[in-house]
Design brief:
The structure holds two protein chains of two kinds.
Chain A lengths: L4 H26 L7 H23 L19 H26 L5 H26 L11 H24 L5 H25 L7 H5 L6 E5 L7 H6 L5 H29 L2 H24 L15
Helix pairs in contact in A: 1-2, 1-4, 1-5, 1-10, 2-3, 2-5, 3-4, 4-5, 5-6, 5-10, 6-9, 9-10
Chain B lengths: L2 E6 L8 H10 L9 E2 L7 E2 L4 E7 L6 E7 L8 H5 L5 E3 L6 E3 L9 H5 L6 E3 L4 E3 L5 H4 L12 H5 L5 E5 L6 H9 L15 E3 L9 H6 L1 H12 L3
The chains are: A mainly alpha, B alpha+beta.
The structure holds iron/sulfur cluster (SF4) (2 copies).
The site of one iron/sulfur cluster has 13 residues of chain B, from α3.
Keywords (chain A): Membrane, Oxidoreductase, Transmembrane, Transmembrane helix
Pfam families (chain A): DmsC
GO molecular function (chain A): dimethyl sulfoxide reductase activity
């Protein structure tokens, strides 16, 4: 698939923003590490709102005809894309009201505030699910057609949110060992799940050139794709990655998204150096950005069978 | 009614006439124009509803060239419709034709991701998704003679490799052709249940090329070919 930056940004930033909201609510609900103070809560909310907005705004850049974008909320009965839009927008009033509540009352853990926070968190988590299902429902792309996709989106969104929250805590001079442990655990879990996903898609399966053409007992080879230069189909679906470079980029991705941040977080626990926590959060976002890029490039649409691929 | 096409892979000669006729008719049709990019430039490209690909099936000496026209299959389980967030993509209840409402589409490409047959192409000029309409503006046009109320591709095919009709009627020519010639659907495992069916090549008695060689005249010709120096 064509790795469109707009869609990579959408899932990366809005996933991280919703993950951050969910963790903010949980930390304040259960007063983990003593809960967040008003300033920390407000910073977390602002970062979350900014991330979600970056994601949603960049996704409109992917539309060829954005003037009809408002219609995307109408088919929520059948379309996961419409559901994602509805929930993403429903997130704003709750997150903003919570922000206003904290600003004026200074009590992030008071009941009305927590109700708002948990509503925003819940809606955010539902939105991540919808985002995963947009890809997971497509039977045409085997690499996406698995429940591991929404699971990965969840773990990565939460891991991004947790590392950002750790950075906010430490940068505002307030160590949070339990939160740090949570971030590390989410990073490890998300790395493991991504590994399971990569194992899962590593072998070819699903439709082949034989079922695509109906010549089930014969060898089928393309002679001519029937077009002179690229078409919409080759531009949108024709992207691939040589296995060797895929492996290299995956190693890089694991290093940036998981390896180095985990080491940094461990150092933060020893040294209290807030700058390292911030660096870890930046690396996690960047590394998972690479993961998202791979997620698109490695997806092989069955239409490629009609352009010469034997299996996808 | 369940309207669709039957494509005979035995007789299709791969001339691309259907694709050209389709482009010609539909560029001024309900979802036209079908924009061309750099038509006279270095990399001509553009929107087509119908594409013909060419394959070799089997291994030498039992191989054969197959010409493979593909357009929208007007699937019964049209996922392209269910995934569309705007309602621009829809399937008509009365005849099963799948269409895109150009005034509602926001150009998100999601339906093209859901289509296994590459039937949908984004028009970069209008920013909307375009696809085969089964020439809905021809087949229901009461102003033209009844025998011409067929998709442009069917009318133009010089090899008569295309048939148009109602798959819900078991006695329609398309239903009979599918029944009698073992017509099949593409990628049935995806369960889109496409309306369009393909007829496999007929089985012919093999031509015995070895024995032909031994016939007198051919033997002499072969000998001359070998003897004469070029
Ligand atoms: S062939 Fe593709 S565009 Fe046509 S109905 Fe089926 S899924 Fe939809
Ligand atoms: S490109 Fe248009 S028709 Fe296709 S899913 Fe998006 S809005 Fe619907």
């Amino acid at each position: 698939m064509h790795p469109a930056l707009a869609v990579i940004f959408l899932t990366l930033f809005s996933g991280g923003g919703f993950g951050l909201m969910a963790l903010t609510a949980i930390v304040n609900d259960f007063q983990i590490d003593g809960g967040l103070n008003p300033l920390q809560t407000m910073i977390a909310l602002l970062v979350s709102l900014a991330f979600v907005s970056i994601g949603l705004l960049s996704s409109t850049a992917h539309l060829a005809n954005p003037k009809n974008a408002w219609r995307a909320f109408t088919r929520w009965r059948t379309s996961w894309l419409a559901r994602e839009g509805v929930f993403a927008v429903a997130y704003y009033p709750f997150a903003m009201l919570y922000l206003i509540w904290v600003f004026f009352t200074g009590h992030p853990a008071a009941l009305p505030g927590l109700v708002l926070a948990n509503m925003a968190a819940l809606i955010g988590l539902i939105t991540i699910f919808c985002q995963g299902m947009i890809y997971a429902v497509l039977r045409t792309i085997r690499q996406w057609n698995t429940p591991l996709v929404p699971a990965n989106f969840y773990l990565m969104g939460l891991a991004i949110g947790a590392t950002i929250l750790v950075a906010i805590r430490w940068a505002t001079g307030n160590p949070a060992p339990a939160l740090l442990g949570t971030a590390a655990a989410l990073l490890v879990l998300s790395a493991v799940f991504k590994g399971i996903y990569y194992f899962w898609i590593s072998r070819p399966a699903g439709p082949t050139i034989r079922t695509a053409t109906g010549f089930n007992r014969l060898n089928v080879r393309i002679l001519d794709p029937g077009h002179t230069f690229g078409t919409f189909l080759t531009e949108e679906f024709g992207h691939t990655l040589a296995p060797a470079s895929a492996h290299r980029i995956k190693a890089l991705m694991y290093t940036i998204a998981y390896g180095v941040p985990l080491i940094l977080l461990a150092t933060v626990a020893q040294s209290n150096a807030a700058i390292l926590a911030i660096l870890a959060a930046v690396l996690v976002v960047g590394g998972i950005g690479i993961e998202r890029w791979l997620f698109f490039v490695e997806a092989q649409h069955v239409i490629n069978l009609y352009h010469g691929r034997q299996h996808c | 009614m369940r309207l669709g096409l039957v494509i005979d892979l035995d007789t299709c000669v791969g001339c691309h006439a259907c694709a050209v006729a389709c482009k010609e008719w539909n560029t001024s049709g309900t979802t036209g124009a079908l924009t061309d990019y750099q038509p006279y430039g270095a990399k001509p490209s553009g929107v087509w509803f119908n594409r013909i690909r060419h394959y070799e099936i089997g291994d030498y000496p039992h191989n054969k060239t197959i010409n493979f026209p593909m357009s929208c299959m007007h699937c019964e389980n049209a996922e392209c419709v269910t995934v569309c967030p705007t309602g621009a993509s829809y399937k008509r209840a009365e005849d099963g034709i799948v269409l895109v409402d150009q005034s509602k589409c926001m150009g998100c490409n999601y339906c093209s991701w859901a289509c296994p047959y590459g039937a949908r192409e984004l028009d970069r000029a209008s920013g909307t998704m375009k696809k085969c309409t089964l020439c809905i503006d021809r087949i229901y046009d009461m102003e033209i003679p009844e025998e011409e109320r067929q998709p442009a591709c069917v009318l133009t095919c010089p090899a008569h490799a295309r048939m148009f009709g109602d798959f819900d009627d078991p006695e329609s020519p398309v239903s009979r052709a599918v029944r009698e010639r073992g017509g099949y659907q593409l990628m049935p495992e995806l369960n889109y249940n496409p309306s369009n069916h393909y007829l496999p090549p007929r089985v012919h008695a093999p031509i015995d090329t070895e024995r032909m060689r031994q016939k007198g005249l051919r033997a002499v010709k072969d000998w001359i070919h070998r003897a004469v120096e070029r």
